[in-house]
Target: 50S ribosomal protein L7
Amino acid sequence: MGNEYSLREQKILSYMGFAAKANKIVYGKQGLRNYIRSFQKKKVILIPRDTGSRVKLDVIKHCEIFDVPYIELNSPKSILAKALGKQNISVVGITDENIIEGILKTFQ
Model:
């Protein structure tokens, strides 16, 4: 990653790695919609910079309707996917409240 991405984003990506190892991530259109609508108290959605505009607008619209915080990253999808040990992932939600808290504190 080098200095290409901010220290803050590197920290967020490391939290994402912890979430992936703990199997506490949500992705996929239906998975994310269910997550956004769920009754879980703390939530956060992460959107890489090169996510398609239709997907990005759809996710942001749902986040605003259900008052879910979202973070638009400067990192591309490939960096997010690598941090998660997956391929071709564009938007991710986190289900672990401690990791969510860490991400939100880092982002403030």
About this structure: The domain at 7-107 is CATH 3.30.1330.30 (60s Ribosomal Protein L30; Chain: A;). The helical segments are 7-21, 29-37, 53-65, 77-84, 97-107. The first strand starts at residue 25 and ends at 26.
